[in-house]
Each structure stands twice: as C-alpha cells, then as structure tokens.
Amino acid sequence: MNVAFNLAADLDAALLAVAPAAGLEASGFAPEVRTADARHGDYQANGVLGYAKARKLNPRDIAEKLVAALPASVTDSYNVTIAGPGFINFTAKPSLLASWLRTFDTTAHLRSGAGTAKSGQTWVVDYSSPNTAKQMHVGHLRSMVIGEAICRLLEFNGAKVVRDNHIGDWGTGFGMLIWAYKRHLDPAKLATDPLEEFERLYTLGQSAAKADPAVLDESRQELVKLQSGDADNLAIWKKINDATLEAFQQIYDRLGIKFDVTLGESFYRDQVDRVYRELTEVGLAQESQGALVVFHPEHPRFKTQPFIMRKGDGASNYATTDLATALYRLEHFHADGIVVVTDFRQADHFEQLYLTVRKWFAERHYRLPELQHVMFGTVTGEDGKALRTRDGGIIKLKDLLAEAEARALALVNERSSDIPAEEKQAIAAVVGLASVQYADLSQNRSSDYVFAWDKMISLEGNTAAYLLYAGARIHSIFRKLGATPGDAATETAASPLETPAELALARKLVKFADAIRLATDTLRPHFLSLYLYELAGEFSGFYAADKVAVDDPAVRARRLLLCARTLLILETGLNLLGLRTLTRM
Ligand code: ARG
After folding, report:
1. Mutation choice for ligand 1 from 342, 345, 354, 373, CB with most ligand atoms inside 8 A
2. Which of 484, 495, 479, 477 has the alpha carbon at shortest distance from 553?
3. What is the pTM of this model?
4. Domain extent at residue 29
5. In the predicted model, what is the mean pLDDT of residues 315-331?
C-alpha cells in the first residue's frame, strides 16, 4: 500500500479528483478535509455544505454522489459515512494505520512526507534581532524561541531557511554612548563585563545630556561623525558591537540557535538612497514638513498617519532600513517568503512597511515574496505586570536561565534518586531550558503570557518536563526489555493492531502530519505543542490498558512498534520546537 504522510490532505485530493465524475464543478469545490472530532471518525470533509448552499442544491445528494465515485484505494482504507446535512466522515481501517506506522519509521521519512507548498522555497526568518550595547533580558526570549521553532518547522516542510539576525546596531543612542565612552570608560569593567559597562556609560551619557545642553550637543556631534564615517567613532562603535555580539552568542549557544547571517541595520546604511529614489519615482513617497513619508489613502489610519522614511533632518530611520532590507532579501536571497518575529507593539510598523513594499514592488515589477509579521504578546509576572526582579530591576536573560536550571535540578532531585549527581545536573540543564522554551511555545503566541515558575517547571500539565518524562519513560520500557526502538526484526513480527487502546494511539500518531501542517501554515508552533501533549496522554492510556511485555511475541512486537513510533514522533516534534530530549529522567 502506498501511504500518504498527510492522510487529510490525501483525502482532500481524492475528493477533488472525483468531483467532476460526481457532477460537481471542481473549480468551485474545496473538500476541506480536517481532523475530526473522535466521535465522527478520523477525518471529516465539510466542503460539500458550502458548495451546495451557494448553488441551492441538496448537500446530502452531493455527498452521496461523491462517496459513490470514490475509488477502491480510498474505500479499502477507510469506512466512509455521511452524517448530518452532508458531512463526509472517514474512519481509517487498522490496515491503513499499520501501513502508515510502518512507512513513517524515521525522522527522515517523516520529513520527506511532510513537504508542502513551501518545499523548495527560500524563507528568510528575521528573529531575535536585539539592539546592541544592551544585555538581553526576559523580553528577548520570545522572539528567539518562537523564531527558532518556526525555522525548524519551515525546514521540516522542505523550505530552505536563512536565519537572519537583524540586530539594531545603528540607533541614535550611539551618540551618547560614544560621548561617554570617550570620557568615562572603565577599561577593567570593559574586560570583565562589557555589556554592563556599556549600559553604565549609556545611562551616564543620557543623564549628562539631560542636565547639560552642551553635552547633548556634543553627543549629537558624535552621532553625526559616526554616521559620516569618522574613523575613531567607527572603531568605538565596532568595539561595542563586537563585544555585544560575543555576549549574545553565549545565549544563542545555550538555546541551540545558529544564524546564517547577522545583517543588522548598519548593513543597509548605504542602500537607503535607492529606496528614497525608487519610492519617489513610483509616486509613493512625498515630502511632508521636510520629511519623506508614505501615506496609504485606502487605509483608515494610515491615510493620515505617515510612514516616515526620512526624517526632517535628513536622517534615515527604522522604516528606511526595513525597506532596504526587504529589497535585499528579494534580490540577494531570492526569498519566496519573509518572516519577522517581534512583539505586537511593532504591528503598525510592519503593516505600513508591508503595504508600502507591496505597492513599491508591484510598480517596479519586482517579484513579491510572501510577507509575514509574526507577532507575540508580552511576558508578565503573576501580578499581570511586566516581569521584574524582586527589587524592581529588569530580569537579565542569563540569570533567568540559571534560575530555570536550579529549579529543574530541585525537581530532578525530588524524584530520580538512582541517577548519579553529575547526570542529574545535565538533565536539569535540559529540563530547565526546555521548560522556559515550552512555556512560551505551548501558548498561542498572540496572547500575553504569565511567567510562573511553579507551573512551568512541573511534571503536571502541558509542560516540557511532562513531555520529556513521557519520552524518557518509553526509553526505559525498551531498556527493561533489552529491545531497541525501531528494530526491524521485531517490527516485521508485529501482528495487526487490535485493541481499542492500540487503535486509539495509532489514530493519534497518524495525525502528526495535520499538526505539522497547521503549525506551519499559521506559523503558530502551539498547535504542535498541543498535539504532542495529547499524544503523550494517549500513550499513557495505551500503556495503562495494554501490557507491552506479554509472552505472545507478535503482540509484544506490535506494542513495541507503537512505543517506538510514539517515541519517534514525540522526539521529532520536541526537536522541531527547539527542545533537546532525554533518554533518562
Ligand atoms: N531591533 C528591533 C527591536 O529590538 C527588532 C528588529 C526586528 N526586525 C526588523 N527587520 N525590523 O525591537
């Protein structure tokens, strides 16, 4: 049997193919096959209703015609029924489930099955992208965690991904920073903790400029000198950025993030003239009070709220570099898609940017990539306010990750007495980080989320520890039986799936494909998280109902096959989210 990876998509295609034979206009018909509520089977086609309604036809008639036209390849694999006003329900037969499980037996096979419309495309993903000369704090976490999961999902679906760290390294703050650097640098502090020293210098420069207009003027001069290429200022600027990136790298290493390119705002500083010229030539940009701006007359707010692409004093800004960046990503990377991951406060900026890019590219006949702004909400403390240290300070990311590890160690110490101390430490490092990542990835990114240690580092509920433990437990089943997951000899000996618990688990496993598709199409990793959580629950149900270590070798073999595939999909899914997994916990 030739099995498709995504059974829902396969059924969708089958229905579309028989539509003409059933008397439908295939062009006006979308089958809309989705994972069904378990009471209705595995998959349900809802598309007949809309089709019939639009044409004032009887949906049940149409559903019957479609079902009658289905080929044996479908009816041999599914029990097909019509329900309600015209839903078509499909329940996979055990033989189909077994074939799927046999076919998709490695991560590589899962991946080659997963190819979607994005296969072969190039996607530039702009994430993390912090401003330099500052430490990363808790607010920087979401972009990294969500961005990396999106990169992995896109790659799994066959896209080539360019990970681009679009750092903010050309901001106006450099004027004050350079002013203070030249007068108040403490070389010893620079050597031990450069970021703290830059922050100290910046604050110092800022308050000096506030107190004394002469200082304000001097720091403006420093900025002008930097922007016009003064060698001394460029050298200081470069030193600051290099030291910042070195510090960021430690966090990226911990999170397993590897950027392909780091092309920050400064990279585009020589490319802005072309942006001014082209946008003016195509009539999008206009002068307004000395500035160069773009209005969008069709938009309720942006018809009066300008997108400022050159300020009154002639300086470029965030909008200018982002316009140049979009063009560069098209011309240099041949991007089919561009994703930028930031918090929701930049929603207006990206809406204006993308509106502008669409019109600009259309006027110049440039190919338009798919433009996505992946937004996320704020992280708050349990009081609903911005997350702070006890004395009201900003929580540094490195401190937060250290605390996660310490708390995870306490959890590991509580339960795993037979594991040597050194290994416990290593397990805690994985669990701590994974808990922080997963707390973020298990929520719909559009919502704010409450950072609560006790909820996040726990074996109960939809948490990383729960899922990592589920995986470790399957490893231990294999260890106890002296078996290897995916062992070919065992799997050939497996008899057909039979018990309700075996079948329920198999039904959940084949729906991995749907979860991947949903998470990738919507760029929302929480759909995958939710699926993995449900899968772990289904596995527990199976393990409680059906003993694996039975005497009958064929029954034992098929249960081991289910254990092996659960493990494979659980680990593949967790890796796609950016988490490392464990064999013991
Ligand atoms: N540096 C910006 C910030 O810290 C984020 C940059 C996002 N990427 C972009 N192309 N604008 O808010």
Report:
1. 342
2. 495
3. 0.96
4. 7-92
5. 96
